[in-house]
Amino acid sequence: MAKEDDKLKRVISHAKEYGFVFPSSEIYDGLSAAYDYGQLGAELKNNIKRYWWDSMVRMNENIVGLDSSIFMHPTTWKASGHIDAFNDPLIDNKDSNKRYRADVLIEEFVAKIEVKIKKDVDKAAKRFGDAFNEEEFRSTNPNVTRRQTQIDEITARFSKALNADDLDDVKAQIEDLGIVCPVSGTKNWTDVRQFNLMFKTELGAVSGDSGVIYLRPETAQGIFVNFLNVQKTSRLKLPFGIAQIGKAFRNEIVARQFIFRMREFEQMEMQFFIKPGTQQEWYEHWKNARIAWHQALGLGEDNYKFHDHLKMAHYADAATDIEFNFPMGFKELEGIHSRTDFDLKQHEEHSGKKLRYFDPETNESYVPYVLETSIGLDRMFLAVLSSSLQDETLEDGSERVVMRIPAPLAPIKAAVLPLTKKDGLPDKAREIINELKYDFNTYYEEKDTIGKRYRRMDAIGTPYCITVDHQTLEDNTVTIRERDSMTQERVAIDALQRIINEKVNMSTLLKKLN
Ligand code: ATP
Question: In Å, how far are 50, 99, 173 from 152, measured between CA atoms?
């Protein structure tokens, strides 16, 4: 089994064992690519949402929130281009009957070459030590330049074919590169076809085409159609943003890799309305702001990289992805798109209603441009979970599994543990919980040895364990143990609120963003 598969499997089984994520309708053997968030998963998800929402809506005077409905008038999707162009190129292998996205097959082929380049670079870096100049090495080493040229040629041909909708050439390229089906090992491919990703259903009792309604494939359109409602009632001036968190649905061709690619998922999207001509400046601004949001979590600076789009979506004039180093390798976590005035203009055209902004400075009315940031909540959840989960060997040789979840995101902030079940210690522990529960999500546990209880809390990422012992009854002090360093300190019960708050309060993250 590949190492990446091992890593992902480990994350999946840990997530299930501790109540983060369960397969959907598991008693019926599950439903492919659908998952349920368990008791700890729901907490973590809520905390990620809050971090995102507060960083947008609370930290920026000119960004407000919205909660629009999942069902929208079907013409929305005609106007947005989703009915005609929200397609993925799919290809089947005739021997295994497995279905793939043609673009993904090619991207994976390129990724393998990139891994080879990286190996050469790392080897050279080791050999030359401090004197190593990576840029020079990449531009002069014959092996690296040959491979880089190969990548450039593949991507150029592929993006040309896709942009021209030349699906025959996409197939020809897959054949020319000798890409085989990972299951059958053969190159016996069907033609490449386009497949629309929107789920369709019917509204009420109306049947036939007139009743067709779609499950939204992105939350953004709910923002666009409300652009004037929000602008007029909030009296915001350009530039301003509207943020929304909500479910989106896509009938993905290949949905696998756990919660990375699901058919029902959640997005956190912000559309920033700007004056035409300022899009480059705002594109840079939001690229910087969004990477800073990620970096503030401390999941590892090297775990992120930008990946500019080869093929622009039908609405964009510039687009980049923030990729994260998932257990399966670097993959898209968030998109930052300069959407121009495409969406608002389309909605003007299809609805016959003006969606213009009156600029009091220039006395002009115009359709604003839009800069979008769009992140998948479930992918963010996977990023946090997979990078936090660590196996550690301690100084005494014993092992522990610890989830170093950023403390403000941790599902449980503090566990209160009576050393024994007797002598009034449980009552004292409950007293402490009753003080702390208004500010923090707390947890009470009295079963098993204290060491075992610490390990269980480490495995779910609880930043603090508070132990109540006999001394507590005498002097109102407790032992507080910190998850990452495992240091233990004797402190007064009165000090607990302050100590915990310093570390777990969401403001510790938000303050890093200024
Ligand atoms: P991909 O190329 O991986 O299919 P995309 O480019 O189609 O993604 P966008 O349309 O830019 O994705 O959507 C914005 C964000 O929504 C993505 O960055 C991702 O985090 C999330 N997302 C998209 N599709 C899914 C899915 N099927 N499951 C979970 N999250 C998703």
Answer: 40, 26, 14
Q: pLDDT tens digits for 255-278?
A: 779 999 999 999 999 999 999 999
Distance in angstroms (rounded) separating the CA atoms of residues 314 and 372: 14
Residues 6+ apart with CB under 8 A from 307: 320, 321, 323, 330, 332
* Per-residue pLDDT tens over the stretch 177-194: 999 999 999 999 999 999
Residue whose CA is closest, atom 23 of ligand 1? 376
Look at ligand 1, atom 2, and give the residue with the nearest C-alpha: 332
Which of 100, 199, 216, 265 has most ligand 1 atoms within 8 Å of CB, for mutation? 265
* DSSP three-state, residue 333: strand
Query: Rounded to the nearest whole angstrom, what is the distance from the C-alpha of residue 203 to the centroid of ligand 1?
Result: 26
pLDDT of residue 207: 62
Query: What is the predicted pLDDT for the residue at 279?
Result: 94
| Residues lining ligand 1, Cβ inside 6 A | 250, 252, 261-262, 265, 267, 332-335, 374-376, 378-379
In the predicted structure, residue 1 carries a pLDDT above the cut 90: no
Between CA 35 and CA 41, with CA 39 as vertex, the angle to 5 degrees is 55
Q: How confident is the model at residue 211 (pLDDT cuts 50, 70, 90)?
A: confident
Nearest CA to ligand 1 atom 21: 376
Ligand 1 centroid – CA 504 distance (Å):
29
Strand order from edge to edge, sheet including 369-376: 63-66, 240-249, 264-274, 369-376, 329-340, 318-326, 304-308
pTM above 0.85, yes or no: yes
pLDDT one-digit tens code per residue, 133-154: 998 999 999 999 999 999 999 9
DSSP calls for 231-261: HHHHTPPSSEEEEEEEEEE---SS--TGGGS
Burial of 83: CB neighbours in 10 Å, binned 0-12, 13-18, 19+: middle
Atom of ligand 1 nearest to the CA of 321: 18
- Computed over its alpha carbons, how large is the radius of gyration of the chain? 26
**150: which DSSP letter?**
H
Domain boundaries, the chain: 2-69+217-386, 92-192, 401-513
Angle at 44 between CA 38 and CA 50, to 5 degrees: 135
Tell me, in angstroms, the distance from the centre of ligand 1 to residue 336's CA.
11
Q: Specify the pLDDT at position 355.
A: 95
Per CATH, the number for 401-513 is 3.40.50.800
Ligand 1 closest atom vs CA 269: 14
Topology, domain 2-69+217-386:
BirA Bifunctional Protein; domain 2 (3.30.930)
| Range 30-47 average pLDDT | 95
